[in-house]
Sequence to fold (514 residues):
Amino acid sequence: MSCQSFHSLDCVCYSLTGIKHRYNCGHLIEAALAHHACFHNNDLLEPILKYVDLLIRTFGPGEELIHGYPGHPEIELALLRLYRLTQDKRHLQLASYFLSERGNPKSVAGKHFYTAEKEARGEREGEWPVYFPRDNPFRYQQAHLPITEQPTIEGHSVRATYLLTAVADLCSLDSEEAKATYLDSLHRLWSNMIGKKMYLTGGIGAIEQYEGFGIDYFLPQSANEGGCYAETCAAIGVVLLAERLLQLERKAEYADIMELCLYNAVLTGMSHDGKAFTYTNQLGSSNAELSERKDWFKCACCPPNVSRLVGYLGGFVWTHRNSARNVVEIDVHLYTTAILTIPVGGDSQVTVRQETDWPNDGKVTFTVEAPPVVDVNLRFRIPAWASDWKMDPALDGAVVEDRYVALPPYWVRRNPNFMLDIPMPSRLIAPHPYTNQPVAAVARGPLVYCVEDADNIWVDDHFKVSSPNSPSCGVPEMDADIPRSPSSSTPLQYSKKSSEQMFSKTRSLSVSAQ
Fold:
């Protein structure tokens, strides 16, 4: 493909590196799918399908096509969602091409596509936007290496999580071939992200310059320490990725991270009245940059993204499948008041109800309604922070696989109404010692709490409460004696201990949900 090809279609694809036309198209595809589901017509879907047809005629491996891919992933996961509706193989193939071609060092005449595109635009060497990483600018677009060759998760955190969400989606759609290609890479990059580049709240992205990941364990608490960006959209990307991975594998770790991010890195991005938002979510406020919600942003991706995610949440609570005739499998990942209805043939259906005050209380009541001939295999997750759990009626000989408790069909049939009780003692948690962050946080259940020092006098309007003594908080006002680590460079390493064990001599911690 010659450089001339870039200019012949510049109204459609000029500067794939930086312009977000395909990113915007991905969101528009998702909007069209939502519109189609709600209003049962093609008024928005039909023109979007025409645009997708244009992209199919423009990008791909053919000699006459552009061998490129969007600078900001999003359209890939949207195309895969579109394929689930249309079953048009071209939609699957375009998404797959965007994923496999990304990072190819020899896309155009032996050059990286973004290098060839830059030359075609007449840009000189070194003329990169200031927000690109200096050592390897293509890390920003997740194009520094092919996905399968990336040893660690790097670059722009939203781009990274959207890209990996699409990869996980492709694995679930394209079966064994995609799994053989990508599954090891998904595991490797996921593990690097949650083990070495994630805050206690589930936030990701420490570097403000390019809104992305730093080196392993570089997790400063605030802007005046050199970082802590933790964009709301990035946390949403983690939730999306975790949900897609749960479609591939029933692993409690994915649901744990999904819940952690939802409560502590996503919902904190919007005020209770829905009128103020955070773009970044620092763990420490300072006079260098206050932690405060704002009415709007010049780059306003986060507020509508929160709305999009909230609209998805019903599908994140559980997964289900009809594994055989008259056999229904249900995995419960999140606890909230919700109803699941599954058709099982004819006019019959299985209905499962949850009722709970989670995350304030660990008691969850379930009601299962199913035809007598249908076996319901129900599994529910025990969170990693839980030290105990019990069932009422009692479940003898419980089978637990990767922290999912399996309820056999005979037990569910005999006990269609039952309660799961997961106690929520408060505990102290701390980041990994390699972060060199001598800090600790109060947590209870899935919530990580924000503790405000009395000496933060420079601002009085962010995340503070006057009374921390809510009965559900579990951290009463009391004297506290917080044990010290041997040296200030070794962070406290406490978890799964109650506040009664931890506190005895410091007055009045002011606690508010992060």
Remarks:
- The radius of gyration is 24 Å.
- Confidence is low (pLDDT under 50) at residues 1-13, 462-514.
- Residues 175-196 form the longest helix (22 residues).
